[in-house]
Design brief:
Molybdenum Cofactor Biosythetic Enzyme, Chain A; 4 domains; 7 helices; elongated; binds adenosine monophosphate; binds magnesium ion
């Protein structure tokens, strides 16, 4: 059962909840997604691994040559003289294996990746040899054991290779293939339903009438959640009618793990999402001490988790990245850090701020000549100004207790490139 109640100590005099408290309350209340799926590794990129992978083999499987050259015994290398010579006894190419023993002071012509003959331990690069086709001459700069890749050097048989909960990257897929695995178990996709609400909101495919505006929120959210581990359900635009909102949310709750709507959660006269959902008793309506994005609804509709985001387009994206995305990654069981690491950059502007709320102005982060990160704000920061988000490459994170920022002060930044999957 989700508990969405906050204690009185978390709420200040004006009824605003601290950002950290809201985030913790959400994360603590989330149900964990059940269900796994067996998929071919070619279809597993971006999916969350549901089993830990123990290597069934050594990688590389055999000790092999790292270069094209001549394999020999390191103990036969010259120590004091300038030059030694070896007779070429045989040739091994990648994919071949030499079974015969190598005679004293003989060597074997070997190609990159070819298995080392059992009794040889050193390879001389061909560029460092003088060869007449039958013998090679080398100088004294070589050392025993060089240019050889040892069996199990990358991965040992029985070693833990990937931990369950890892969101699989292209390198992980290659790694799985290198172990000879073709299928793996991943968590099933999270089913997310997305709705916009509001009588003034029009589909971009229709003609907005006077007083109307085009729906951007649903598109931002659908784009942000266009991922391999998510199945999206587009609920379209729901009008400001209690009965219609309830009908649509209840229908979505029968198949979605998570429902995200935007608009209608503040205190306006037409905030029907709020009145429709209040009746269910399972949804909490918070005013969070953040800017932008103050109102937020969170709770349950039947067995589905529900987020009611604000209506303003920037507030939607801020609350999405700060609350919803970490929630999604937790539900999916992803055990990496859910959102971007916080970096420090020097502010190039002054930024007005008062203590008592966490603010997320949008910024452009760059490096100065000394290699230090610096950030400038993207002009007007109104919560309806979506272009402030589009031209930015980072959130500037100004913590609850901070006051106005002077140019040159360090601020925290969260790069968007780490947020987008
Ligand atoms: P609300 O919280 O419903 O009063 O919405 C706050 C503001 O966000 C209003 O100016 C709405 O017109 C605007 N808004 C609501 N939904 C959307 C949407 N889907 N796309 C763009 N703007 C929206
Ligand atoms: Mg509205």
């Amino acid at each position: 059962m989700i508990s969405t109640q906050t204690s009185c100590t978390d709420i200040n005099e004006s009824g605003l909840i601290h950002f950290d408290t809201a985030k913790k309350t959400i994360l603590d209340a989330l149900p964990r997604l059940h269900g796994t799926q067996q998929v071919p590794i070619e279809q597993a990129t971006g999916r969350c691994l549901a089993e830990s992978i123990i290597s069934p083999i050594n990688v590389p499987a055999q000790t092999n040559s790292a270069v094209d050259g001549y394999a020999l015994r390191g103990s036969e290398l010259a120590t004091d003289t300038d030059e030694t010579s070896f007779t070429i006894q045989a040739r091994v190419l990648a994919g071949q294996f030499l079974t015969e023993a190598c005679l004293a002071n003989h060597c074997v012509r070997i190609m990159t990746g070819a298995a080392m003959p059992n009794d040889l331990d050193t390879v001389i690069m061909q560029e460092h040899c003088q060869s007449d086709g039958n013998t090679i001459r080398i100088d004294a700069r070589h050392s025993a054991g060089q240019n050889v890749r040892h069996a199990g050097e990358d991965i040992q048989q029985g070693e833990l290779v990937l931990q369950q909960g890892k969101q699989l990257s292209p390198a992980d897929i290659g790694l799985l293939a290198s172990l000879g695995l073709t299928e793996i178990k991943v968590r099933r996709k999270l089913r997310i339903a997305i709705a916009s609400t509001g009588d003034e909101v029009y589909s971009p495919a229709s003609l907005a009438s006077v007083g109307g505006l085009y729906d951007s929120n649903r598109y931002s959210l659908l784009a942000a959640l266009d991922r391999a581990d998510i199945e999206l359900i587009d609920l379209g635009i729901i009008p400001d009618q209690e009965a219609e909102l309830l009908k649509q949310f209840n229908a979505a709750a029968s198949y979605a793990d998570l429902i995200i709507s935007s608009g209608g959660v503040s205190v306006g006269e037409a905030d029907f999402t709020k009145s429709a959902l209040k009746a269910s008793g399972q949804i909490n309506f918070w005013k969070i001490a953040i800017k932008p994005g103050r109102p937020l609804a969170f709770g349950k509709i039947q067995q589905s988790t529900f987020f009611g985001l604000p209506g303003n387009p920037v507030a939607v994206l801020v609350t999405f990245y700060q609350f919803v995305l970490p929630a999604i990654e937790k539900m999916l069981g992803i055990n990496q850090q859910a959102i971007a690491p916080i970096l420090k950059a020097r502010s190039l502007n002054s930024i007005r701020k008062r203590a008592g709320r966490t603010e997320f102005p949008r910024g452009i982060v760059s490096q100065n000549a000394a290699g230090e990160l610096q950030v400038s704000t993207t002009g007007k920061q109104g919560s309806g100004i979506l272009s402030s988000m589009s031209i930015a490459n980072a959130f500037i994170v100004l913590q609850h207790d901070r006051e106005s920022i002077q140019p040159g002060e360090w601020v925290d930044v969260q790069l968007f490139s780490n947020l987008f999957h």
